[in-house]
Amino acid sequence: MAGRFAPSPTGSLHAGSLLAAVGSYLDARAAGERWLLRIEDLDTPRVVPGCADGMLRTLEAYGFEWDGDVVRQSTRADAYRDALTTLAARGRLYRCSCSRRELAGDGGEEPAAYPGTCRAGTTRPGPTAVRFHVSDAAVAFDDLFLGSQAFDLGVLGDFVVERRDGIASYQLAVVVDDAWQGVTRVVRGADLLESTPWQLDLQAALGLQRPIYGHLPLVTEPDGSKLSKSRRAVPIPDADALPGGGPGRAISAALTSTLKLLSQSPPADLAEMPIKDVWCWALANWTPQALVGLKKVQLSATGDI
Questions:
Q1: CA torsion sign, 16 to 22 to 25 to 30?
Q2: 110 burial level (CB within 10 Å; 0-12, 13-18, 19+)
Q3: What is the reported pLDDT for 108?
C-alpha cells in the first residue's frame, strides 16, 4: 500500500507542484500508507541539470519524509523495454511514421485524437514512434475527488508508448513504475485526468493491478487562466533562498497557503508555526471530502502561494 509523488526535473517546484505533493502526502499518511518519491527524468532533452537534486533539497526543507530510495526513471529502461515486448507479443503495438506537422495538416493544430493513420502500416520511410492500439471500449473508474468518470477510448485514440528517439513515453513508464513500486493510490493534478483511461487500458493489457486514483484541483491564475511559467509558476520558497540556509516562516507560510488551496481550514496562526507543527495539524485535520468536485483553485492576487 503506497502513494507517491513523481515530479519531472524540467524546472523548479512551483505552486502546482507543491499542491500535488502535499495532497498526495496527506492522502497516503492519513491512510497509514507509505509515500514514495520518483523522479520522472525520461525526457532527457528537457531535463535541467541539477534540477532533480534541487527538488529533493526543497522537499526535505518542507518536511516531506519519503519511504525507501528515490527512484529515477532514467535507470529503468530495461523495464520499459520488457513491457513493450509484452505488448507487442499481445498484438497491441504498431509503428507510426506520422509527424506532428503531418497530423496538424493545413489547419496547424493536431487532431484531438490520433486518427489511426498507421494502423495498417507506416505511410513513409524513416524514423518511427510506437503506438498502443487502445481497446474498442469505454473505461470507467471512481475518482477519490471527482467521482464517477467514464471515457471512450475510441474517442481518445491510440497513443505513443515509445518515441522516435527510443525513449519510453510518460504513459508507459508511469504504469510500469507504479506497478513495480506497489503504488496503490495515485493522487495527482487534474491536468492528468485524461491520461488515466489510457493508463488503465495499458494496465489491463499488461495484467497489472489498477490503483485508486484521485485528481487534485488545477492551480490557476487569479483570473482563472492557466498558470503561466512566465508569470506565476515561479519556484516556491526553499531552504537555499532563506537567511542562514534553513527552513523558516516562508516555508510554513507556503505550506499553510497550500492547505488553503486544498480547501482545508488551517488556523490563522499556523503560518507562523514551525514546519513540524504545520504537518501535525494538517495530518490530524486532513479532510479530503472538502475537495470533492473541485477541479480548479485560484492563486491569490498577491505574489504569495
A1: negative
A2: middle
A3: 54
- pLDDT tens digits, one per residue of 179-193: 999 999 999 999 999
pLDDT higher than threshold 80 for residue 105: no
The CATH fold of domain 76-180+202-208: Rossmann fold (3.40.50)
Q: Distance of CA 279 to CAs 30, 258, 270, Å? A: 11, 12, 10
CA count, 13 A, side-chain hemisphere, 174: 25
Question: DSSP assignment of 113-166, as one string?
Answer: S---TTTTS-SSSS--EEEE---SSEEEEEETTTEEEEEEHHHH--EEEE-TTS
- The pLDDT score that the predictor gives to residue 209 is 96
* pLDDT tens per residue, range 3-43: 999 999 998 898 999 999 999 999 999 999 999 999 999 99
Q: Which grid coordinates are listed for 20? A: 500535488
Distance between first and last Cα of the chain: 31
Count the neighbouring beta carbons within 10 Å of the beta carbon of residue 7.
Answer: 22
Question: What's the CATH class of domain 2-74+218-298?
Answer: alpha beta
> Are the C-beta atoms of 221 and 248 separated by less than 8 Å?
no
Whole-prediction pTM value?
A: 0.91
